[in-house]
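Exercise (ungraded).
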Amino acid sequence: MTSVASETVSVSNVAKPGGTGSPWWQRLLRLITPYLFVLPFVLLFIAFFFAPLLYAFSQSLYRVHRSGLGLTPPTIVFAGLSNYVKAFQDPAFWDGVKRVLVFGVIQIPIEMILAVVLALLMDSAVIRFRRFFRLAFFIPFAVPGVVAAIMWGFFYQPTSSPIIALLTALHLGAPDFLGKNVVLWSIANISTWEFAGYNMVIVYSALQSIPQEIYESGRLDGLSEVGIALRIKLPMIRPALFLAVLFAIIGSLQLFNEPTILNRLSNAITTTYTPNIYAYSVAFVNTDYYYGGALAVILGVLTFIFSYGFVRFTQRQSGN
Amino acid sequence: MVTTQTPVDSERQVKNHTIERQQKLIGVRGFSLKNGVAYLFLIIVTIYSLTPLWWLAISATKNNTDLFSSFGLWFAHFNLIQNLQDTFTYQGGEFVRWIFNTILYAVIGGAGSMLISLMAGYALAKYRFRGSTLVSTLVLGALLVPTTTLALPTYLLMSKINLVNTYWAVLLPSLLSPVGVFLARVFATAAVPDELIDAARVDGAGEFRIFWRVSMPLLVPGMVTIFLFQFVAIWNNFFLPLVVLNDSTYFPINLGLATWNFDPASHQLLYNLIVTGSFLAVLPLVVMFLVLQRYWRAGLAFGSVTG
């Protein structure tokens, strides 16, 4: 602080006569200023992005070697890529990958269609109380995933569920929200509940930034309001929608919080249910940090491939 | 040229997909049947969005028996005061400590990452320098790698340097916010005119002084947005604390509630604490949402900026 203050005093002395031709040290300072500004971020990036990934990768090249009889303490030996070979042949891991992919393929379109429909309605002049509706839809995003899962857990348990209570009272039978084939969709419901409103706001903001004149010209061309929504609004919000889908893909591949919390309520959720849960339990329950590290690295690379692939795909689409 | 909708038109539309039908409603003037359907849809989604929160508020007032024996969406015996007392005093008042920890993580992490992101985003927006493309690429690349992927590797590294089970283990990684840098860059490009910076230079102001006195005041709304995003991200974070902490002294609320929830020996007794604790964890965030809505919108408009 003090150095900045004293420096500005001298600068104003030098710069007064005309302001042209700054001294060399001032030009140097201006040259290195942007580097000083980005330095904290870059240091953090190296420390908490690069270094962990690199270290996890280096650890994943080792494994614990236990002697057959357990007479000598286990040793840590270099294993090359054997953890990766093991992972690629590990059906538990790939079952989890398949599960989150199925989850994403079904859940993301539902969430996005809901978000777009709501955003279009919010953008429409004839709907009243839009402020209230917008807030109501957005509020679930304020709820931590852990709390959302705890709450919905109560809605899914037969002993406490108001939904099941209502359905039973109407003699409509009690659905088993936590059963083997259903629980994945019960989790999908939690994700949709949390993020549909969030994505609605993203799409809605994009809709709001479209200049009104474009609609006018659409009307002059004889387009109906639906026509305007489909032909003008939807193409214009494509970039925003792509971004929302991209984050949803990343999120669904990382599925962890909700199934972890529901685990206590449903036998269907095992320690291999999603890739992230599996990597966690390998590392912390089996205390095999080496294999767990390998799984984390593979999951990171898979996520990157999917999201990057999606980015390339959409770029090609908009290129045409 | 005036857009009139013929009966044939609307008839055909009705048969169409539900979504299109919803969109059709947008064009209808005044209150009509179609408008009614739109409102019905909006009300159903509103009920869907708010019911769990209504349930949470109601359930925070119930004791353990009523949680399971009374109808979930209405009051039973009013037990809120007792619940609050139990929640705050259970196991020597660990919940109070978790609240303190969560606020510490979210406020310091949010403010720190806001400042760091702002400086980086400002530099990317307002200076041309060698390596800026590289930094931008790093930011975008980091957006594609989610924080959960990093949690396990971060644990491995932190246990190596003995940072596990400290406040730093949660705080330091929270300072890194690629989204924050991205937003800061967008905001600085839009809110700080180059001419203003040049004028300040001509007046003889140093670069840091320009940042602090000229640019920052213009970036205050953007700073609030960046702070909010990181604040909520930290408040809601679960995986990283779960991995790097096992001493409940350092737990944030989320992790504390999850451990109450997992505890197989006692969870039967703890239901009212879990529910009341969840209610207390959500309350400040909901209030922040209501008060600071417009800053959220500003942050979530990024989709239309990147186009």
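Further reading is listed at the end of the chapter. For now, observe: Chain B touches chain A through 113 residues (CB under 8 Å). Residues 59 and 285 of chain B are 18 Å apart (CA to CA).
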